[in-house]
Write a structure and sequence with these properties.
Keywords: Hydrolase. The chain is of the alpha/beta class. The chain is built from eight helices and six strands; from the N terminus they run αβααβαβαβαβαβα. It starts with a helix and ends with a helix.
């Protein structure tokens, strides 16, 4: 935390840039992934080495509501090392830090907090209406300062993306909404 007090530079957290959300033949593939990822690359260039990338992996515990979830989405009921859960090739070089792998929608927690400390976070990734919103709300609850780069997020549909953005917009000042150009300036300091 001492480093965070000396360095107020924001971090970029890229949520789940994985094949399962990018592939057009995946039931969870976002038709907006490519456009969002072009903006994610711009953000990562501005953030330099202050980039974290997360990955959603299926839980092995099917005794919880996750068992019901995988019954509803059997195509995703695969081992965690299945290629469907790999990062898209373009995401592999976004961060010098290890990927944060979690079996939860929301990625905010001790792994991210340990690295970013109290510094502001720019959030981008997929899916706006699932893992991004879950991460943003948990970050806000934890007291983080989150800016969501809206055009660097991809929703399952345009309507679901807009609905998630609307909900996140209800949480100022913990969550701010911005476009990639504004977030690039924030990340460059």
């Amino acid at each position: 935390m001492g480093d965070a007090a000396r360095d107020p530079s924001p971090w970029l957290v890229v949520i789940d840039p994985q094949a399962i959300f990018a592939a057009s033949d995946s039931e969870w593939g976002s038709p907006f992934f490519d456009a969002a990822f072009a903006n994610i690359r711009r953000l990562a260039a501005a953030a330099e080495d202050r980039v974290l990338v997360t990955r959603w992996l299926p839980t092995a515990d099917r005794t919880t509501s996750w068992g019901d979830y995988f019954a509803a989405w059997p195509f995703a009921d695969r081992p965690a090392d299945d290629a469907l859960f790999d990062l898209v090739p373009e995401a592999a070089g976004l961060s010098p830090h290890p990927t944060i792998d979690l079996p939860t929608f929301g990625k905010w927690g001790s792994a991210i907090e340990r690295i970013v400390g109290g510094r502001p976070v720019v959030l981008a990734g997929v899916s706006t209406d699932c893992c991004v919103i879950s991460t943003a709300l948990a970050g806000a609850d934890a007291g983080a300062r989150i800016t969501v780069a809206v055009d660097a997020c991809a929703g399952s549909t345009a309507e679901n993306h807009a609905a998630a953005v609307r909900v996140m917009g209800l949480y100022p000042p913990q969550i701010a909404l911005a476009d990639t150009s504004d977030c690039v300036e924030v990340l460059r300091g």
